[in-house]
Amino acid sequence: MMKRRTFCTSAVAALAAASLPLRRGLASEVAAAGPGGKQVLLQSTAIDDLRASLRGELLLPGQDGYDSARRVWNGAFDRRPALIARCAGAADVIQSVKFARANHLLVAVRGGGHSLSGQSVCEGGLMIDLTPMKSVHIDPLARTARVEPGVLLGQFDREAQAFGLATTAGTVSHTGVAGLTLGGGFGRLGRRFGLACDNVRAAELVSADGTFVQTSETDNAELLWGLRGGGGNFGVVTSFEYRMHPVDPTVLAGPLVYSFADAREVLHFFADYIARAPDELYADALLVPTPDGKRTVVFDICYSGAIAEGERILAPLRKFGKPLVDGVRPMPYIAIQKSGDDNFPIGRAYYIKSGYLKQLDAKTLDAAVDQLAATRVGQSAILFAHAGGAIARVKPGSAAFQHRDATYSMVIMSFWDKPAERDPGMQWARASWKVMEPMTEGFYVNEVSNEDPERRIRANYGASYDRLVKLKNRYDPTNLFQMNANVKPTA
User: Fold this and answer.
1) Are 440 and 425 within 8 A, CB to CB?
2) For 288-303, what is each residue's pLDDT tens digit?
3) Are strands 39-43 and 29-33 parallel, antiparallel or unpaired?
4) Whole-angstrom distance, CA of residue 382 vs CA of residue 367
């Protein structure tokens, strides 16, 4: 009887051993992508080990939640990562970075997923998804905020305004805090308080070798300098500490809308008027279509000082011409911060070209009107985003961000909801950019295009470039983090 049991046990074990290689062979490897499209084969055991090391989820194609996690704001990009690590904290980021480095994977880092160039998602590589990291802690006494990288601007604004505080935080509330800040960070308060990056006091980061690094104005200060406008070149930021400012919850804000037939006259007046604007006044100028396809001129206004003073300052602009709509009124700051959300919905496809303007002059404005007037592409727009003020008064060299002398950033945009609209829109944007580019100098790195050559990125960083290369050599010498306005290492 004992021999029979021994034989049976041995036979079962032998059968299992014989079948094991076959079972492993069917799913032992997962195809992935490295930089440059090079194929990488990941062992299933290594993937299992990564999953076990994370507090958050690890998603593969076909799993529940994968398709929603890979989608980003710009619907022009439909990429499928081999793996999505949905990080619950800094420890998960460390494990994900080490895995990517060890396996030579292409890496994309998603904060809010709002990158115009789609670089927060990659094809075939590892997407480090920071969406679950949404903590916001406001210290009303110290007037600081500690914010994790998955937070959206609207969430940040809401928490801060509960204490009567704010800092510069974009103009569309579903933009991510992290990407906005690392590229510079314009917004309705920028002319009063500087860029979002100018208000970063400290940050925590996971570098390309998986090291957790703390940086402040006294600790690793050179790295903090690089994070203030150098983009995601040096690692994955896991928290930011911002300087906050008292901002009344009620501001004088809203749109002024004019007929496109009056565009030249209205824009010429606006250019002269806005050149004398106080820091409290922020005003974008937009040449945009209405939902029914009619083109309009829109001024997006926000005066964040005393309401009575704002009424006086805005009176000349509001009285000029015959506006179709005067929506300027006292309103909650968090309401004006959400006002543009519907115009830039998540999932619509976008294509842009952009550049800074040192001045908003008649030649530039007339050229913009001509480009829009001549096209039959319905879903096309030219935007002028306000800068200057406190942004221009930051001490040169105190941040990696350049172009302090810009008064506006010009954006030429086409957008579409149907695939057939893609090519005509992109052709119009490229043709318009060819006309308008000579009037610009440099560009906002958060609006980098996949078509931008390395020389344009190098020129754009200007005097900061060599310092950024030194930081890249130290914190990411193999260029693991390259899906950005990339500074290439020389190490």
Assistant:
1) no
2) 988 777 899 999 999 9
3) antiparallel
4) 11
| Beta sheet of 57-59, edge-to-edge order | 57-59, 83-86, 126-129, 107-110
149 touches 58 (CB < 8 A): no
CA distance 379 to 258: 18
Which tokens is 98 given? 């080490």
Query: Does one domain contain both 96 and 229?
Result: no
Range of the domain at 104: 29-129
| Predicted model pTM | 0.92
Give the whole-angstrom CA distance, residue 429 versus residue 449: 12
Residues 260 and 354 in one domain: yes
250 torsion bin: left (phi>0), alpha (psi -120 to 50), beta (else): beta
CB atoms within 10 A of CB 434: 11
Ramachandran angles phi, psi of 110, nearest 5° = -110, 125
Indicate if 242 and 254 belong to the same structural domain. no
Nearest CA to 299 among 314, 316, 277, 284?
284
Kindly list the distances between the CA atom of residue 378 and the CA atoms of 352, 354, 439, in Å, as whole numbers in the listed order: 15, 20, 25
The residue among 97, 129, 161 that closes a domain is: 129
pLDDT tens-digit readout, 225-270: 999 999 999 999 999 999 999 999 999 999 999 999 999 999 999 9
